[in-house]
Write a structure and sequence with these properties.
The chain is mostly helical and 602 residues long. Helix content is 57%, strand content 5%. A four-stranded mixed beta sheet has the order 1-2-4-3. Helix 15 runs antiparallel to helix 17 (355-369).
């Protein structure tokens, strides 16, 4: 039996999405322009860090595939293929659009254009779903929550593909929710299929999150409105296949290989081997106590339960889908981490994707929480004003101290849930002035608790205790109000390296890296430095790998004459040298050809 879904008590006729005529055209145009410009406004107002520290292995490898993908594949395909070294090539949902943008605007502008693109994918559907059910003020709240999330900002701040996946996941969850109420169902489902497919082919960590989302969607449709469900699923499947085929063509043109599905599957099988899971997966939980931000998903979920607690059929289906999807995603990641052999939570660049559903759930929870407390068109805007004010106060210098799960983190999570309960119990409070005070206190308390849990400086230095030095700590505490200038300087130098080195003279012409200064380890990721690097103190890898070229990187001037003498057994010659500089970041680079292993080009 179908269930009629009422958009919500706050929706007024003047706020409907279909306002027509000349009178409605200009306000609608202004509203659309405001939403489309909101990422830029948020960047300025919230002082968002433009680029995050790349604290992960081979941090620039995806940058290399964006800038000069064929060079890497021509050099290393045979070396990387036996393991999972080519897994990055399968992330075409991120690489293909990024490379196309790079061809138009160049490397550093590409970074900004793609982040703006990712921001729009996240905030536009978020705004629309909240606006439909709670009004424009709630839509603005959703935008602010996305744009002020330290987790999402940090994900956007690197070329690791969680930057794409987290946005595709937010957009797909909002779009599938939009398909449950109002018109244009097939349009929203087509958008869902597009974004979900892009998420899968950006990073396979999106698969369990999307599986949960679609299971919840099918379950809700089966129980409430089965009419056309088969055709809707066919639409999702057809769009998914179509997007995959288009990405295959793009992958062939850009990367020279169309079968990214086999590459992704091979990487999954490789990392499913006992040796790999035993290395990457941490069986204990010591590391967990150092990450208060992981308390946010269960706390937000509990707040949603408290806020929407009633008979399931009394909850509007979009809000029900978002909350249940979030619950299933939190459960899935927790099971994979603590009962399986996956490292979904201990590595921040994987757990960041979980915050797509969490952020959208927080937005609808706050909107529902204040729905009865904030009455009147002006009073509604107290919600986004306070949601914006809290991160601004944080940027102004009111920073939380460093704390761990116990006791401070758990207490703050309990406070968040308690505030939701108080708002639920006092939703009918009168007079209006008292309701405004309660709403203001609840909004400030919820946002303050969530933000404090995410931005508290992590007490561990560099790597998480108990993980064997594998899992780096995220820089969430500097996402708001951070400069990112040093990271931008390093990025500018990194994207110059492929042009300095040049393409290989023939397929299979290997290049090894020598980074004399340890601070250049991240930069070495442009050429898969983890497996393609060597030290001059221990050059045993040179005869094993038989490279035709050596790329020398140093923060101080290099004596190439002495270096050529030390490598004389490999018949070295200096092809070129240069000083790569951006701001205060300077790298002395040299390219050596090793005649002993070089193949004649004529």
């Amino acid at each position: 039996m179908a269930r009629n879904v009422v958009p919500g008590p706050t929706m007024q006729p003047s706020e409907s999405l279909g306002t027509g005529g000349i009178r409605g055209f200009w306000p609608s145009l202004a509203e659309a322009a405001a939403v489309l410009c909101s990422p830029l406004a948020a960047f300025v107002i919230l002082s968002l860090r433009p680029m995050a520290p790349a604290v992960l292995a081979d941090s620039n490898i995806h940058t290399a595939y964006i800038v000069h993908p064929r060079d890497l594949l021509d050099r290393y395909s045979t070396v990387l293929a036996p393991g999972a070294g080519l897994r990055e090539v399968g992330r075409v949902g991120f690489l293909v659009p990024a490379h196309l943008v790079y061809l138009v605007v160049g490397a550093v502008p590409e970074f900004y254009v793609m982040r703006y693109f990712f921001a729009l994918i996240a905030v536009v559907p978020t705004y629309l779903i909240l606006r439909r059910h709670y009004g424009r003020a709630a839509g603005a709240t959703g935008i602010i929550l996305v744009m002020s999330s330290p987790v999402i900002i940090t994900a956007w701040g690197t070329d690791y593909p969680d930057s794409a996946a987290v946005s595709y996941l937010i957009g797909s969850l909002a779009c599938v929710s939009l398909s449950l109420g109002g018109g244009h169902r097939r349009l929203w489902l087509s958008a869902t299929g597009l974004l979900a497919t892009m998420a899968v082919w950006s990073h396979s960590i999106a698969i369990p999150l999307l599986a949960v989302m679609f299971l919840v969607f099918i379950g809700i449709r089966a129980l409430t409105d089965r009419h056309g469900l088969g055709w809707d699923l066919l639409t999702l499947g057809a769009v998914g296949v179509g997007v995959t085929l288009v990405l295959g063509v793009g992958s062939q043109l850009i990367l020279g290989r169309s079968d990214f599905i086999a590459t992704t599957w091979d990487a999954y099988r490789f990392y499913s081997q006992p040796a790999e899971t035993n290395y990457w997966h941490t069986g204990g939980t010591l590391w967990l106590s150092y990450l208060p931000y992981l308390l946010v998903p269960p706390a937000v979920l509990a707040a949603w339960i408290v806020t929407f607690w009633r008979r399931p059929r009394a909850i509007p289906t979009p809000q029900l889908l978002i909350g249940l999807a979030c619950a299933g995603q939190v459960a899935a990641f927790s099971y994979m981490q603590f009962f399986g052999k996956s490292w979904t939570l201990e590595q921040h660049y994987l757990s960041s994707t979980l915050f797509a559903g969490v952020t959208l759930t927080l937005a609808i929870t706050l909107s529902e929480m204040c729905n009865n407390l904030l009455q009147g068109p002006l009073a509604k805007w107290i919600l986004p004003a306070l949601v914006l004010a809290v991160p601004l106060i944080y940027e102004a210098g009111l920073r939380p101290p460093s704390f761990r799960w116990y006791p401070t983190g758990i207490v703050m999570a309990i406070v968040l849930i308690t505030i939701a309960l108080v708002a639920r119990l006092l939703r009918g409070i009168r007079p209006r002035s008292a309701a405004l005070v309660v709403a203001a206190a609840c909004i400030t308390g919820v946002i303050g608790s969530v933000l404090a849990l995410m931005v508290t400086p992590i007490q561990a230095q560099g790597y998480l205790p108990g993980t064997g030095g594998k899992d780096p700590t995220p820089a969430y505490s500097t996402a708001l109000g951070g400069s990112g200038e040093s990271e931008l300087d390093q990025y500018r130098v990194a994207v110059e390296l492929p042009s300095f080195v040049g393409p290989p003279d023939y397929k299979g012409e290997q290049l090894l890296m020598v980074y004399i200064d340890p601070s250049l380890v991240a930069l070495s990721g442009m050429y898969h430095g983890g497996i393609n690097s060597v030290t001059l103190l221990n050059p045993n890898r040179i005869p094993q790998r038989r490279p035709a070229e050596l790329l020398i990187l140093s923060r101080t001037p290099v004596g190439f004459g002495q270096m050529l003498t030390s490598l004389h057994q490999f018949q070295p010659t200096l092809l070129r040298k240069s000083v790569l500089r951006s701001g205060s970041f300077t790298v002395y680079a040299g390219l050596l050809k090793l005649g002993l292993f070089s193949r004649p080009t004529h």
